[in-house]
Amino acid sequence: MSYPQQAIDNILNPPADKRCLHALKNIAEAETLYVLADDEGECRFWVDDGGATFLPVWPEQEFAEMVKSEGESVWEFELEEFLQDSVPWLAEEGYGISVFPVAARPDSVVMPAVEFAARINTILAESYGEAFDLPYL
To answer: What is the CATH number of domain 5-125?
Structure first.
């Protein structure tokens, strides 16, 4: 999806909590999300100043492309696969999820992987009347 610049600015400029809500709703609606991967096909994790490790995710490929570095690519995940397979592993490793980080703004909503899944499932249930059966919730 390609947004006009004004729409991009309107999505990127709000504070992290509003970007996060936008992202969660769009991820639930599209049932896809985007992550960065290195040349070897491994997901790129980020580490904050306190040493916490997290996986950044985006609601659209276009926004992930804006922050990728040389040698990185953007990967699309089907939401159900991500929630079924990746979230339990992320939780076991103690990794969080950073929802919709942007280069121009250092703030980002970082949450435990299980909380991410629960929030997505709540949006699916409230907006679409169905949610994924996730044994860890």
So the answer is: 3.40.1350.90
